[in-house]
Specification:
The protein is built from 19 helices and 9 strands. The chain has helices at about 1-25, 30-35, 50, 60-70, 90-100, 130-140, 145-165, 175-190, 205-210, 220-230, 230-235, 245-265, 270-280, 290-320, 320-340, 345-350, 350-365, 395-400, 440-455; strands spanning about 75-80, 80-85, 175, 370-375, 380, 385, 390-395, 455-460, 485-490. It has a 4-stranded mixed sheet with strand order 1-2-7-4. α14 (about 290-320) packs across α17 (about 350-365), α14 (about 290-320) crosses α19 and α15 (about 320-340) crosses α17 (about 350-365). The chain is globular.
Length: about 500
């Protein structure tokens, strides 16, 4: 009891000291001195107190800033005590991604302590020359030829999804949970070289461990907040991004598969094999087993939940629009018949399916923002010179729902992408050299998942389907607060 009292007293004193520090230093006036319009921060939380207390989602907070300062090119905000440039003007966004990339080549996350957490030393967190060398290695693994060779693994998982649907209750389906089982099997097969068996067994250890990475409880939210904005405190408290159990589980899987392939000489058309081949042939950058493990891990981290979320939102929108759903289904049936089943050529021919997936990513991008870190002095506009280490935030979700770029932006309309799969304001995969290298692979996963479901089932709202989407305040990634529940009616 006394320890609890002492802890509370220390916590109160710490809050008081931080508040005094906040109001007696010039940190909160950073953007005022730079002559940038800004939002006055509060102590400790900056401009995101409502998010940290889980009263408003991170996405809603971004939308608030975007709407409030819509007529500005940018606005200064504070994430904790970190001043961050929130960019609104699309031309400036494009310049940061492409024209001025040399000045914004890093993400904010590069401050991650990869010595202490080696799984985080991957393409997403690397910077400078190391990032450039790894990008050079990883990008060819997502070529059309490599994707075509790998697609049978995706198709096998789509077949398993159809079998799972034929065995399970279809009245009130927890769609994100089902889609996570599908994408876990895809990523496990393509990135780890194993069969997680998630669709066969909902209690699969691989599935359980992968889901632990995406927990959204209050403790996890606060821990990630600490890691992002107070990295020294995060290290001092010996906190970890992912538990030892998660790290050990996935590291052991990769080690076992690598050992087996070296011993037996077995080859497989998956990401792990491509990395293993690179290890043998790459001379400019030494691909260690640790790097193979960490980049297989980011493959899962970047692709598993994002693809499952996209599939879930897509099925939700199709359940609300039976006419569109029937058109998508007919295209799937026509293409699979024309090309002799669900294969790479069939999926590439499904134009309306891709349009529907792109519109889902426009309206509900799983990752609603991206960041950049200034690595060289740069003039973004005639009024603003950006300094080295200035943080930049790009509100992708807000831009993609701006009526200046997309008419009637809240309407789900795949026809927006009929003429162009990549209109100027669509940036769900990012743009420029630091865009998502696995964008095409993600599209293949979503297309295969839709084909597996819609070829055999009519997707309909059920009693638990929410009438609208409200984003969960516990998650930075876009998720519906009430979940996504649908009914799957066999055709």
């Amino acid at each position: 009891m006394w320890l609890s009292v002492i802890f509370i007293i220390i916590l109160i004193l710490l809050i008081v000291l931080l508040t005094i520090f906040h109001f007696t230093t010039n940190g909160r006036k950073y953007w005022l001195h730079r002559k940038v319009p800004y939002r006055e921060p509060c102590p400790i939380f900056g401009n995101f107190g409502a998010t940290l207390t889980m009263r408003r989602s991170y996405t809603n907070m971004l939308q608030f800033f975007y709407d409030t300062f819509r007529e500005e090119k940018y606005v200064g905000i504070f994430q904790a005590r970190r001043p961050t440039l929130f960019v609104i003007d699309l031309d400036i966004v494009k310049n940061i991604f492409i024209k001025d990339f040399a000045c914004f080549s890093d993400r904010i996350s590069v401050s991650t302590d990869t010595q202490r957490e080696p799984l985080l030393r991957n393409l997403a967190n690397m910077s400078g020359a190391e990032w450039k060398a790894m990008r050079h290695i990883v990008t060819p693994t997502f070529s059309s030829a490599k994707m075509k060779a790998m697609f049978p693994l995706v198709a096998d998982c789509a077949s398993s999804l159809k079998i799972a649907l034929s065995r399970e209750a279809l009245v009130d389906v927890d769609v994100p949970k089902l889609m996570s089982r599908f994408t876990t099997d895809v990523i496990g097969s393509c990135a780890f070289g194993v069969d997680p068996g998630s669709l066969k067994n909902p209690d699969s250890p691989f599935l359980a461990m992968s889901q632990r990475m995406f927990k959204t409880d209050r403790t996890t939210v606060l821990k990630r907040y600490c890691r992002t904005f107070f990295p020294k405190l995060f290290k001092f408290l010996n906190l970890r991004t992912y538990s030892w159990e998660v790290e050990t589980f996935f590291t052991n899987i990769i080690s076992q598969v690598l050992e087996e392939r070296r011993r037996t000489g077995v080859q497989r058309n998956d990401f792990l094999q491509l990395m293993l081949n690179m290890q043998k042939t790459e001379t400019e950058f030494y691909m260690t087993d640790e790097l193979i493990t960490s980049n297989s891990f980011i493959f899962m981290l970047a692709g598993l939940e994002t693809s499952a979320t996209t599939l879930s939102f897509c099925l939700y929108e199709l359940a609300k629009d039976p006419d569109l759903q029937n058109k998508v289904r007919q295209e799937i049936i026509d293409c699979t018949e024309r090309y002799g089943g669900l294969n790479y050529d069939a999926v590439c021919a499904m134009r309306l399916v891709v349009q529907t997936a792109m519109e889902t990513l426009r309206l509900h991008p799983p990752t609603p923002l991206t960041t950049r870190l200034c690595t060289a002095p740069c003039t973004l506009s005639s009024e603003l010179k950006v300094k080295v280490k200035d943080a930049v935030l790009i509100p992708l979700h807000c831009i993609q729902k701006d009526p200046r770029y997309f008419t009637d932006p809240d309407k789900f309309d795949p026809e927006r992408f009929k003429e162009d799969f990549n209109p100027p304001a669509f940036m769900a995969f990012g743009e420029g050299p630091r865009s998502c290298p696995g964008a095409r692979f993600a599209q293949l996963i979503v297309s295969a998942g839709l084909a597996a479901v819609l070829s055999g089932y009519q997707v309909q709202p059920c009693a638990r389907t929410t009438p609208t989407i409200q984003y969960d305040p516990r998650s930075v990634m876009l998720k519906n607060k009430g979940g996504i529940w649908l009914k799957f009616k066999p055709l």
